Amino acid sequence: MVDSESAREYNSYLGKDLSTLLILSTLSAKKRSSTYELIRDIKTKTNNKISLRAGTIYPHMEKLESLGVINKYVEDTPSRSEGVIRQKSVYSITQKGLEMLREKMRDWNDLQFIINSLLANEM
Q1: Is residue 121 part of a domain?
Q2: Structurally, how many domains does the chain consist of?
Q3: pTM score of the predicted model
């Protein structure tokens, strides 16, 4: 049985924690990634079923950076306009981020088990 403390944890998981899991998982598979690439990769890997919006992901990335689970780098990249250089933010996962990813994966597996158990009882 799930106690009320665990229930609160799982309730939050359905929102921001799922985004965190997806972002950290995607970053762990790549060396560096921009937010645009993260949005695209998550959408592609989930067969267009999950699409994070730019207005959602940017504040989330700032929060993850403040927690020390990702690092932000600014790179100069050529623009489509000839001779114009623009700056692009790219992110990488830290050791602390890998630890958080493992924790989020355990939480996700626990949540899946609970949901599957509930669904099995309904059938």
Answers
A1: no
A2: 1
A3: 0.79
